[in-house]
Amino acid sequence: MKVAVPLFLVLLAFQSHSQDGRFNFGARHSGLGGSSVTLGDHYSLFNNVGGLARVKSHFVFGGYQNRFGIREFQVIGAGAIYKTGLGNAGLGFHRFGDDLFSQQRLHLAIGNKFQLVSLGLAADLIQYNVSSVGTKRAIALEFGGIAEITSQLFFGAYIFNLNQVDLVKETGEKIPTVMKGGISYRPSEELFINVEVEKDLEFDEIIKAGLEYQIVENVFFRTGISSQPFLSAFGIGFHPKKLRFDYSYIDDSNLGSIHEVSLAYSFQQ
Questions:
Q1: Domains of the chain: which residue ranges?
Q2: 4-267 has which CATH code?
Q3: DSSP codes of every residue in 247-268
Q4: How far apart are CA 126 and CA 103, in angstroms?
Q5: Which of 67, 71, 140, 183 is most exposed, with minimal Cβ within 10 Å?
Q6: How would you write the pLDDT of the chain (269 residues) with one tens digit per residue?
Q7: First to last CA, the chain
Q8: Is the CB of residue 61 less than 8 Å from the CB of residue 29?
Q9: DSSP strand pairing (166-168 vs 173-174)
Q10: Has this prediction a pTM greater than 0.70?
Q11: How many CB atoms lie within 10 A of CB 36?
């Protein structure tokens, strides 16, 4: 009980900004207001493991997120994807916080594509550390998929903590179970529009929408919005050859600005 109560309070304090149960990452994702459940890129490893099989080459990548200019709220992440003829495998690491309170996630995922549908499964070792009370660990499962309905319309769905694992067994305190579903309309190779809904079983749903437009070759503009709380987002991407650089800016109506940068390298086959 001495561990459960302080840990619960800390988790509750950070719930409003999606650090518990939502480990979304990548400046492309953020620049779209978080509406990335239908995307099959290297950051699918964090955002919807169902898109992992749609990655067409080996990747290594990493990023940094600065929340509200507060050092204790910083987020770092890194990962790698290995592509094979039988499917793709991914390994990722994600960390939020500092020595006082931190959440860390070690993430192992596999994905495969079956005609027009891609599916992925992942296992996460999640560690919560509170300096005054100690460390708690749990293993959560993820499952997701993306379906190509037509050449212009895609549907994606994803669930985090499929096994609804307990964080503190004595109190029944669980890691939140989070579900996402959405569609993507892609009228041309240069433009797509995403709309999705995210639902934590314990909270109201979040509505997200985002747009990406390729301005010129290898240069992308992004914007998006999200509710609960209201967020507006903007982003740019520069993808010369094997390098991927992305930046996003988010304006939180309650707390201020969030900056994120991501860098990736593709080992094209």
A1: 4-267
A2: 2.40.160.40
A3: EEEEEETTTEEEEEEEEEEEE-
A4: 7
A5: 71
A6: 444 434 443 443 444 344 444 568 899 999 999 999 999 999 999 999 999 999 999 999 999 999 888 877 889 999 999 998 889 999 999 998 887 888 899 999 999 999 999 999 999 999 988 877 788 889 999 999 999 999 999 999 999 999 988 877 766 677 889 999 999 999 999 999 999 999 998 889 999 999 999 999 999 999 999 998 899 999 999 999 899 999 999 998 888 899 999 999 999 75
A7: 53
A8: no
A9: antiparallel
A10: yes
A11: 32
SS3 53: helix
Residue carrying the six token digits 């212009």 = 152
Neighbours of 167 (CB within 10 A): 21
* Count of Cβ atoms closer than 10 Å to residue 268 Cβ: 11
DSSP 12: H
| Distances in whole angstroms, Cα of residue 95 to Cα of each of 18, 24, 69, 127, 147 | 13, 11, 17, 9, 30
Q: Which amino acid is at 28?
A: R
Pairing of strands 206-216, 191-200: antiparallel
Q: How far apart are CA 45 and CA 64, in angstroms?
A: 16
Q: Does a cis peptide bond (omega within 30 degrees of 0) precede residue 229?
A: yes
CA distance 158 to 49: 8
> CA-to-CA distance for 221 and 210, rounded, in angstroms?
11
**If you ran DSSP here, which 8-state letter would residue 175 be given?**
P
